[in-house]
Amino acid sequence: MDAHNEHAHEGVNYDGIVGPAVALGFAVFIFAISFGVLCVNAGGSVPKAMAMSLLVFTGASQFSAVSVIAAGGTAASAVVGALLLGSRNAIYGVAVAPWLPGSVKYRVAAAQFTIDETTGMTLVQNSPERKRRAFWVTAASIYGFWNVGTLIGALVGNSFDTQKYGLDVAFPAAFVAMVAPLLSTRKAQLAGIGGAVVCLATTPFLPIGAPIVISAVVALIALVPAQRKSRHS
Amino acid sequence: MSWTVVLVLAFGAFALKVFGFVIIGDRKFPPQVEAVIALIPAALLCALIMKDTFTAGHDLQIDARAVGLVVAVFGVWRKVPIWLVIVLACVATGITRAIS
To answer: What confidence tens digit (pLDDT) does each residue in A89-121 have?
Structure first.
């Protein structure tokens, strides 16, 4: 990936961008259908599910909010938990901003699409032009698949007996798929275990939803000094 | 799920994105802040997995959902496609409920 491409063409080179972007889009599509189903079953509606996917547009946060509401949690804990989960998008914004220069309007628009997939696809490209292109191609793919999937899920969602078909387990199953790639470092594993323990330990006596918010404090273990070691893989 | 929740979430999520991308921009977050924020998803997602599998209201319980979780973890570990992981986990829980 690091090798310089021969500057053969001045023209558009989408090699290695469109394929992965569509593959990511398809994976997201499945999450989106699940999200639509779960959202309407948690007291949402088709317009609310669509507003979430069109406007919030950050999958883990959307799932988290719906999961907390579905369990009977307060609106406040649903929102705070979801926004804590969305705070990583601020970091992603800092990471991709240098590759997406432009007017304030352009950058504000690009910010809406700055999520896991677009950031990942942008950062692995080897030239500024490919980075910019990968960002927008991935953004288009994910935004399209995410919203069409949400619509399909929301439209069919009410016809499912979620308990009967075990659809409530789509929540934890989706979270397992989302968290797995994150657990590559020792600290991330500790944060995961810590978050799980804090959640279970506080569930009996905190308001529903609050344990999710509280579990975020485990991330402070990042401040514990570790032996200096390159994090780059 | 009220419209208030949807709109506050939409505004908050967008504000976070704009904050990083446009406001911070060329500057940097302090490395400690960045390191803490980077660990939040692992902690929160694992907490959500526990809540959605082993709790009902304020009670801790093990039921048919645990079967679905085991299937999901196994599927992700074996690199089964995501759509199939979700379907298999739901089916496993559904079947467990039906026979118990």
So the answer is: 998 999 899 999 999 999 999 999 999 899 988
Distance from CA of B76 to the nearest CA of A (A): 6
A174-207 tens-digit pLDDT: 889 889 988 999 999 999 999 999 999 999 999 8
> CB contact, 8 Å: A50 with chain B?
no
The mean predicted confidence, pLDDT, of chain A is 88
**What's the whole-model pTM score?**
0.84
Contact criterion met (CB < 8 Å) for A90 and B17: yes
What ipTM did this prediction achieve?
A: 0.92
Asked if B17 lies within 8 A of A112 by C-beta distance, the reply is yes
The residue among A104, A119, A169, A224 with the most chain B CBs within 10 A of its CB, best to mutate, is: A169
Q: How many CB atoms lie within 10 A of CB B61?
A: 11
Same domain, B7 and B48: yes
Say if the Cβ atoms of B52 and A200 lie within 8 Å: no
Proportion of chain B in helix, strand, coil states, percent, rounded to 5: 80, 5, 20
* pLDDT given at position B1: 82
Closest to A60 measured CA to CA, from B4, B8, B74, B47: B47
**How many domains would you assign to chain B?**
2
E strands present in B1-100: 55-56, 59-60
Same domain, B34 and B7: yes
Residue B29: count of CB within 10 angstroms of its CB: 15
